[in-house]
């Protein structure tokens, strides 16, 4: 099968092995020093259709990017999350597990403007990506706006990228009646959001039914939960959580969030058991067998 596998919830998104590996490790490998066997991770990624070559290449690239650290014991290779990966995953958790859980504040807006030099393109690109994850849209080059108070998150981000000296931040509100200009600016593309939320709900909403969940064995529960998490984590990049007065869509977002929360929790036990058995080499818990009737 191709190394690129279409997600079920959003036909336009493509699963990439590096991104999927980080999603999976972020969900199951968060204790400091905990490690996974390389062969187990190759098998795990294979469950999503990736070849052995593609899986091994993805893990090697994550090492090169400083997100994984390789450990050897004889002929065996293990991976642990790097401190940088732990920081990024913690930041991601805060965003993913708070996204859509509160009503947007119409009078709380954040504007970020920066003059990061061209010779620091890496930092510029990282800042742009992580601002989008926080719900910011770009109204023009180096000027970003979000429909919420993001002062603390942005301060931490600027410090982490060591670009605080090149950026400033404004907090305030937008004058009534001028909000629609933001949509016309192209800062965000919100036209397709309801369709994407609808696709997510159609794909995963079936597992709100306990009978449907009970049909899944641990491997299937793991794959469904990982795909769902990977798909859901894309919403913060595309949905700025604008107030309904600007861009209606809160109902679809709320239904998707409710669906995600319920299924993520309901499938946690079998999914974690499967990951532990394959990637951590832990034997599954024995199943209690009732004694034969006398």
From TrEMBL:
Residues 19-84 form the Transcriptional repressor PaaX-like N-terminal domain. It comes from the Bacteria. GO terms for biological process: DNA-templated transcription. InterPro entries: PaaX-like_central (IPR048846), PaaX-like_N (IPR012906), PaaX_C (IPR013225), PaaX_trns_reg (IPR011965), WH-like_DNA-bd_sf (IPR036388), WH_DNA-bd_sf (IPR036390). Residues 188-276 form the Transcriptional repressor PaaX-like C-terminal domain. It holds the Pfam family PaaX_C. Residues 105-180 form the Transcriptional repressor PaaX-like central Cas2-like domain. This is Transcriptional repressor PaaX. The gene is paaX_2.
């Amino acid at each position: 099968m191709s190394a690129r596998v279409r997600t079920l919830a959003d036909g336009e998104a493509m699963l990439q092995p590096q991104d999927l590996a980080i999603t999976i490790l972020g969900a199951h490998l968060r204790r400091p020093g905990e490690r996974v066997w390389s062969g187990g991770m190759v098998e795990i990624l294979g469950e999503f259709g990736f070849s052995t070559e593609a899986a091994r290449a993805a893990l090697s690239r994550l090492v090169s990017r400083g997100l994984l650290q390789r450990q050897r014991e004889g002929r065996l290779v293990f991976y642990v999350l790097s401190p940088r990966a732990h920081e990024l995953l913690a930041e991601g958790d805060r965003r993913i597990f708070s996204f859509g859980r509160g009503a947007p504040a119409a009078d709380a807006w954040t504007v970020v403007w920066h003059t990061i030099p061209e010779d620091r393109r890496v930092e510029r690109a990282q800042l742009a990506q992580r601002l989008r994850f926080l719900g910011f849209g770009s109204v023009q080059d180096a000027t970003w706006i979000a429909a919420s108070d993001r002062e603390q998150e942005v301060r931490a981000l600027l410090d982490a990228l060591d670009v605080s000296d090149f950026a400033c931040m404004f907090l305030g509100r937008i004058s009534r009646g001028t909000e629609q200009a933001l949509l016309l600016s192209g800062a965000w593309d919100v036209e397709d959001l309801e369709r994407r939320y609808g696709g997510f709900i159609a794909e995963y909403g079936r597992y709100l039914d306990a009978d449907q969940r009970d049909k899944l064995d641990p491997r299937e529960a793991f794959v469904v939960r990982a795909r769902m998490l990977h798909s859901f984590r894309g919403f913060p990049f595309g949905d700025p959580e604008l107030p309904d007065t600007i861009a209606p869509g809160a109902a679809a977002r709320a239904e998707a969030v409710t669906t995600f929360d319920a299924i993520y929790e309901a499938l946690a036990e079998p999914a974690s058991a499967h990951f532990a058995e394959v990637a951590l080499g832990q034997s599954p818990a024995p199943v209690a067998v009732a004694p034969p009737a006398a």
